Structure formats: C-alpha cells, structure tokens
Amino acid sequence: MRAEPSGASHIAAHGDVLRWPVVGSFLRWRHARSSMQLVLLCIAGAVVVHGLAGPDLAPANLSTVLTWVHYRGLLVVALLAAGNLFCAGCPFVLVRDWGRRTHAPSRTWPSRLRGKWIAIVLFVAVLFAYELFDLWALPSATAYLVLAYFVAALAVDLVFKGATFCKHICPIGQFNFVASTVSPLELRIKESTTCQTCRTEDCIAGRRAPEAPLVLVQRGCELGLFLPAKVGNLDCTFCLDCVQACPHDNIALTGRTPGIELADERRRSGIGRLARRPDLAVLSVLFAFAAMLNAFAMVSPVHRVEQWLSAMLGTTSEFVVLSCMFAFGLGAAPVVLVGLAAGSTRATSGGAGSLIDVATRYAYAFVPFGFGMWLAHYSFHFLTGALTVVPVTQNATVDLLGWPALGEPLWRWAGMRPGAVFPIQLGCIVLGTIGSLAIAHLISQRDSPERAVRATAPWVVAFVLLAAVAIWVLFQPMEMRGLGFGA
Amino acid sequence: MELGPRPDRTRTIRARNRALVLLLIGHVASAACARHGAPATELVTRLNVVPSSPVVDGEAIAEFMILDGAGKKVPPASLRLEAHMTHPGMAPLVEPASDDGQGSYRVRLRFTMAGAWVLYVKGTLADRRAIDQRLGEVTVRPAS
Asked: What is the ipTM of this complex?
C-alpha cells in the first residue's frame, strides 16, 4: 500500500476542511493565523509575567501549570485530532514578523548547517535541562525558557531569511513536525492539472502586487514546501500561507490515513527522500526513545537507577548520573535495538544496501509508537490536572487585585483520577505500537516485496519489546518528582 | 521577504493596538509584582509529620505550632493546612487545622501521590493578621 500522490484525486467539498462552515471560513480568513498567534502570545505573556512575579510554588503558578500541563497536553491532543495547530498559532513567529517589519533579514542559512542536526542537539538539550533543573517545578525558569524561545526565534530570523528558526533550529517545531506525520489532516493540492498550468507558483514564491511586481503582498511557504511536490506533513507549520497565496484556490486541508506518509518513498519538496535523510531518521528514533525516557523519569524506579548509578560511578553529581541515563536511553539503547533489527532484516530479506541504509529506512516506523508514548504521558498530566488552571487563575487574580474577583481558589478542582486515565494511556501505547508495526510492514512491502514478512519480523520483536517496557513503566507507581537526586 | 506597503490608517491602528497590548502587559506585570496584604512574617512555625515519610493513601498526622517572635505560641486562630505537590497539575490537599487549645494544630492527611509535598499553613490569626507560611516538605513513598 502506498500513499496517494498529493492532489492526484478530486477532493469533495465536504472533504476539504477549508470549505466547512465556520471553521473553514475562519481558516481562510486572512488574519486567521495572526488571531491564533495573538491568543497564544497573550497566554505566553501570562506565563512569563506570572512565572517571574508570581508564587514560587509550581502548582500555584500559571507559568508551570499552563506550560507543563496544558500546553503539552493540548499540543499532543491537537496533533492527534487535527494537525500541527500549535506551530500555526506560534507566538514566536508573530513577534518575529513584527521584528521583520523593522529589520528585514538578508542572509541565507548556511547550506552546511541545513537539516535537523542542530535541532536534534537542542531537542536533547531541552529534555536534559528539564530533568537536571526540574523545570516543571520552577516557574521563573519556565518563564525564562519561554523568553529564550522568543529571543532565539527573533535573533535567528532577523538575520536569516525564510523560516530558518522553524525549519532548522526550533526543538518544539521538530517535535511537532515528526508528530504531525500521524495527524489526520494534511494540506495538499486539489487538482494537479491546475498546478501544471500555473506559471507563477505563488504557493512557494509568494503573491506579488500586479501593479508592482517587486512588492510581495502575500508570502509563500517559508519552509520551502512547493505544494505540487509536497508529501505529508513534515516541515509543514499549517501556517496556511500557501492557501492565501494560491491564486487558483487549489489547496485543500483534507483527511488522510495517519502515519501512511512515513512509508512513502517519494521525493518531497523541501525535504527530499526520507531514506536519504539520516538526520530525520535519527530524529524519529530519538522521538520515540525520548518519550520512554521522559516517562520513565516520572516513576519510582528511576530513583533506584539513579542511586545505583551514583554508587557505581562514585559520584553524587546529578549531571553525571543524568548524562549516563541519557547516554543509555538516547544513545546505546536505540543504537543497539535499531542496529540489531536492521541487521536481522538485512540478513533475512537479502535486501540491498548497508546496515545504515536499512536502519534509516525503517527508523520512521518508530514515530507512531513514540507519539503513543508522548500522548500517554502528556495526556496523563492534562487529564488529571486540566481543571487546576481554574484555582491557579483565581489565586493569580487575588495576587493581582488583592481580592478574589474570580472567587476563592477552588483548590480541589483537578481533573480525572489517575487510575481512570490508565486505560487511556494503555490504549495510546497499544495503538501506537500497532501503528509502528503497520508502518514497518509497509516499508518491508515496499523495499522487499518478496520477503516482506521476514523483513518485518525483527521490527515486530523490537516494537513488542518497546511496548512491553512502556506498559511496565505505566504500571509503576507514579512519583511526581521534586524529591531531588539521591532522596 | 518584505511585505508590501499598507495604507497609513491601517498602520496607525496597528501601532495603537500594539501600544495598548504593551501597556496592558506592563500594567499586569507591575500589578503582579506588588504584593497585597501584610503577611505575618515574624512568626516561626514548627512541623512534625507522623510517619515522617508517609505512604500513598496511608494516613498521616501533621502537627504544627505557630510561635511569635518571642517564642510563645500564638493565640488560637482560623487556619487551614495546604499540601501541594511540587509538580503542577495535582490538586492540593486542603484541610482545616484544629487547635488543641494551646496553640498546637493537628491535621489528618491522606496523600494521593508519591513524591514531594510542600506543606503550607494559611488563614487568619486571632489578631486578624493573614498567615501564608511554608511549614516544610514531606516525601511520600509509593505504596508497596
């Protein structure tokens, strides 16, 4: 089974979200993105202000509650239900756009720095800092992290043209790009014949004023995705600039089979072929293993592992112990597991290519499992703590005004019982694993049609093993951290 | 890439809206920085939790005293004990604190999650001063 070529088929009006009443009208509105960004900018403002000036206690501060409970939870839910909505509403880009009105960038991002390698390092660095500094428990540090994103986006994109920060640097963006491959919606062309006759290619070049051809009135895709050759959601921020730019109204936001693009070997605009992108392959594998590591750090056994490592290494440095855990969890474990599975596939299927080639091709199959794990983890915090924003906001109002304008804080408001969330978490893991198995088999059918089952078998073992570990983690007693290393 | 020129009126409205947003953010920031009320900061609190490292869903007793600057117990007051986890998204435990008539308070707690809990005493003292003071931290163990 292969992904449908983008735009090869007619898209019924009801299948195009952009044609739906209300939602479609809003999305086609010229200021749809700006309005979403403004809302998130206001929330980011509240996060920063309350983080710096509010209470130090994380559960009573909007900075930590909104960032670590609501933002992360809603992010994965939006990715699951629709697509990359949070990149669409990214407030960093709004501030960047304001900055660019006073200072237009003139440089092009160096070709040797292109790709995801820098973003991968930053992605791991943010996860490491999260664990090392207990960011979830530090409102002021959370506020500074948010500010750092604003400053970084502004600094990079005032120097370099296009969406350099989004495409090559932003760790959140890379998370969203990878996760959005399992989202149900995708921007694609409606009629390929329309694009074949198009001479302006506004979807990527931007639309220019007829009376002043040098003046750009609507930018095209800043991430270099040419819609007729766009496949899937990778690197798509759902900004809808292409929709606004297309003079033929030939772009639709349509449903598709989630994850199917991970087995699509066609050349993608702005990306190339997945099998020739080792950086994206590494990102996909890290995406899955980071989900495991992040969730493992929430359960009781992590303390025993830390203490064991501490005793074995003869150190009390949390930096050293965490470094070892990260080196194992994001280094040794994935290399061994992927290496063994790829080696077995290569040996049993008789396929061509080196071990690295096979590993790169199958690495994308880790994404559904990884997304299931992130969803299980973040949805736990969101579902058990969604209502805590009410008393925290009430408390912030008391701090701000000196009297309970929104009523006395309803501290008992929280969310679902942790036990009630467990079946949902289990479902996320199971569905993610099934998705990974399906993608691995599609890749085998594509690359080794004669011996697809044999080629898939090692990956079945790998994903079942990962799922077993994930379910074991879910069964462990939760331990909301903050105990400090060695406690 | 540069966007094309916009009409002056639109630009003026945009600039004004931006200024309003910045003003609002500045106002909220400055107001948030201003602390309201005069907390009774000279008070000293003493906390004892039994067992010292409680188990999830097991009962624990928190006993605390509030002493004034001279080391004397403050008169009975209307107080509550709040236990918050250090991780956001968890509902705190909020229990009224009953005094034994001699300035000591005793609260039964049943912790719902393993991890670090920070205990606060909040409420009003007999002399109507507000109190919002951190009592200490308790490490709750998972149920075996």
From this structure: 0.70
